[in-house]
Specification:
Order of helices and strands of chain B: HHHHHHHHHHEEHHH
Strand content of chain A: under 5%
Radius of gyration of chain B: 21 Å
Chains: A mainly alpha (252), B mainly alpha (314), C alpha+beta (99)
Structural class of chain B: mainly alpha
CATH superfamily of chain A: Ferritin, core subunit, four-helix bundle
Shape of chain A: globular
Low-confidence stretches of chain A: none
Number of helices of chain B: 13
Oligomer: heterotrimer
CATH architecture of chain A: Up-down Bundle
Strand order of the largest sheet of chain B: 1-2
Mean pLDDT of chain B: 95
């Protein structure tokens, strides 16, 4: 894989994470606990899908095969997607979604903060736009972790369970493979291990404030970066890509 | 006492006659208040229930652009529901109570949302026809006599102007597309045209609530006038992109400078309003489920707030 | 205590938006929020979706004190004939500049 190819993969990973997160959040539409929260979750979905669109547009340019951004969302298969497993897990209840989104937003906060000074100008520009959105996602989700953790005994139980259930999907966020190494060397990408300690410190602080326990270290699931996904991704794609696959000649 | 009431009624009627808005703290006849609560809450419920048929296609929207647009549009509907609930709340009814009435079947919502969205073209048809019909009504309601309702309508009309365009754009693209797409678009047109005309309600001669509503200027134009406006502007748009209107009696009437149209199937209208539309049960079940599943979240937020208050008081 | 909480749509808040720095805050509408942080975020998500604002005020709806319509005679009509409060009431000599 040459450098150009590696940058492409790096951008696709960022794009895939944004797309799949946005897709999952879109599923909340008309299902939120209160109308105001319905609007908030849709805002987040829109932020994510907008980000995916920007990243895929750049991927199309890097790939240089005449594809557009939709190609990357709608015409690739399960094994081609390189998003983290955490993003594709089902929404389940509101605590589960908040746990997942909070873990992600905190990770993205540190990731995109550093990407703002990426040597790749396009990535830096996208990061500068995204970081503003991410800050708000982080604030919103953190406030909900606090409220659910320190609300009623039922909400406390559900929030703790969500934190415990998703914990084993957080390790993957900080994995480093050859592409990450290469991007780090070029000053394009970041060292995910460097942001792990920052992430963990914030997680512990907030969980503590929310009267929640930090889960014990356990086996961490892995695979997303190499296209080895949970069974859920296939269904997301079947849903999302249905029209583009069923009518390959149509423009929408 | 009676003299007092007469005086208040007089002030109220003078305001109505002079097109001065009635505001929440102004005296108003009980029936005016009741009529407004019924109409505004029904309008709010329609926006919120209307999120479902379109929400049905968010996960399957065929491009990133269309996915974003659809999400933003449905979000707007939710926002509009929120504005309208707030307007109704100024009349002394809580959102809890309005939701309760909806779930009990005591409050209605627009029957159009009891039809299913079967293909992507239905998303186009809803934006173009359903929102197109809604906006004709809403533009007229910007001049409604109750201040908070009128203000909500102004905001809603401003935001809704893109909705109809996005629907028409979907239809246009499909009509310029493959044979399958064209067939899909025409099929959606065939299914949504008549229910869209029904959105304006019964003929003026059969409309029991029109009298007072017009007198009090809650409603500014009659069902039939609004319906005619919608037909006249939509037919040209349909023909321009090659869609035909599923009404063989539709004909330009040079004398009245508008279209004559065939008779609406009022039996269907009444059947769907009374609960036997294709999706009535599904829509209510969905709304009640989301409401019930959200209960522990709403309670947790209040519990958290009470705990903070206790901490501060200690 | 917390287990006896009644399920509600949360308290109502009034939202005021400043569309640009320097301009007065204008009433935009209402939102429901369980506390001020949630109400503030809800106001942001509901009323600034189209770039409408640079700053938000929220206030619990039940904290608003409104004048009573029946007081409007004595509150507002006495100022009707005090036209000397308006600059156009005064006659300036022809040719006076910068006044």
């Amino acid at each position: 894989m040459d450098t150009q190819q590696q940058i492409l993969h790096y951008v696709l990973r960022l794009g895939d994470n944004a797309l799949i997160s946005g897709h999952r959040l879109g599923e909340w539409c008309s299902n939120a606990p209160i109308l105001e929260e319905d609007l908030a979750l849709t805002n987040f979905a829109l932020d994510y899908i907008g980000r995916a669109e920007n990243l895929y547009q750049y991927a199309a340019k890097l790939e240089n095969k005449g594809h557009d951004e939709d190609f990357f969302a709608y015409r690739r298969s399960e094994r081609d997607f390189q998003n983290h497993l955490l993003t594709e897990l089902p929404n389940n209840n509101f605590a589960d979604t908040m746990a997942r989104l909070w873990f992600l937003s905190l990770y993205e906060f540190y990731l995109y903060n550093e990407l703002c000074s990426s040597h790749d100008e396009t990535i830096a520009a996208i990061a500068q736009k995204s970081i503003k959105e991410i800050k708000y996602h982080l604030r919103h989700t953190k406030e909900w972790v606090l409220r659910l953790g320190d609300g009623t005994s039922e909400s406390h139980y559900k929030m703790q369970k969500a934190i415990n259930d998703y914990w084993m999907y957080t390790g993957e966020l900080f994995e480093m493979d050859t592409i990450d190494h290469e991007m780090l060397n070029l000053g394009i990408g970041i060292n995910p291990q460097n942001i792990y300690s920052l992430w963990l410190k914030d997680v512990k602080e907030t969980l503590n404030e929310a009267q929640l326990q930090v889960p014990e270290d356990s086996y961490m699931q892995t695979g997303g970066k190499n296209g080895i996904h949970t069974e859920y991704l296939g269904f997301i794609l079947a849903d999302m890509q249905y029209l583009q696959r069923a009518y390959p000649d149509a423009k929408w | 006492m009676n003299a007092d009431l007469d005086k208040q009624l007089n002030v109220f009627e003078t305001k109505i006659n002079e097109d001065i808005n009635i505001e929440p703290r102004d005296w108003m006849p009980d029936d005016y208040r009741k009529h407004l609560i019924r109409q505004i809450s029904q309008h709010a419920h329609s926006e919120v229930i209307g999120m479902q048929p379109e929400g049905n296609w968010i996960s399957r929207a065929p491009s990133l652009r269309s996915k974003k647009i659809l999400l933003a549009k449905i979000q707007d509907e939710g926002g509009h529901g929120l504005y309208l609930y707030s307007a109704a709340e100024t009349l002394g009814i809580s959102r809890d109570e309005m939701l309760h009435q909806l779930h009990e079947g005591k409050a209605k919502y627009s029957s159009i949302f009891n039809y299913p969205t079967l293909t992507w073209a239905d998303i186009g048809a809803i934006g173009w026809l359903v929102d197109g019909a809604a906006i004709v009504n809403q533009v007229s309601l910007q001049k409604t006599s109750y201040g908070p309702y009128a203000r909500a309508m102004v905001r809603i009309c401003k935001e809704e102007s893109f909705h109809q365009r996005q629907g028409y754009e979907i239809m246009t693209k499909m009509m310029q597309g493959t044979k399958d797409q064209q067939a899909m678009a025409q099929d959606a047109m065939n299914r949504w045209w008549w229910p869209s005309l029904m959105m304006f309600g019964p003929h003026d001669s059969d409309s029991p609530n029109t009298g007072n509503a017009m007198k009090w200027k809650i409603k500014r134009q009659s069902n039939d006038i609004l319906r005619q406006k919608f037909i006249d502007k939509t037919v040209q748009q349909a023909h321009l992109i090659g869609l035909s209107i599923p009404d063989n009696k539709l004909k330009w009437n040079e004398d009245k400078k508008s279209y004559d149209h065939g008779e609406i199937n009022w039996d269907e209208f009444i059947r769907v309003i009374n609960g036997d539309g294709p999706c009535n049960k599904q829509r209510m079940k969905h709304h009640i489920k989301a409401h019930q599943e959200g209960e522990w979240v709403r309670k947790a937020a209040i519990a958290y707030q009470l705990k903070r208050k206790e901490l501060i008081n200690q | 205590m917390t287990e006896e909480i009644k399920d509600t749509q949360w308290p109502l808040w009034e939202v005021f938006i400043q569309s640009n720095p320097g301009l007065p805050y204008k009433h935009a509408g209402s939102v429901h929020g369980s506390d001020k942080e949630i109400a503030m975020q809800n106001a942001r998500d509901t009323y600034t979706r189209r770039n409408e604002g640079t700053s938000i005020w929220i206030v619990p709806s039940n904290s608003i004190v409104a004048s009573n319509p029946s007081d409007s005679d004595m509150f507002f009509e006495p100022s009707n004939d005090k036209i000397y409060r308006h600059p156009t009431f005064y006659v300036m000599p022809e040719g006076a500049l910068n006044i």
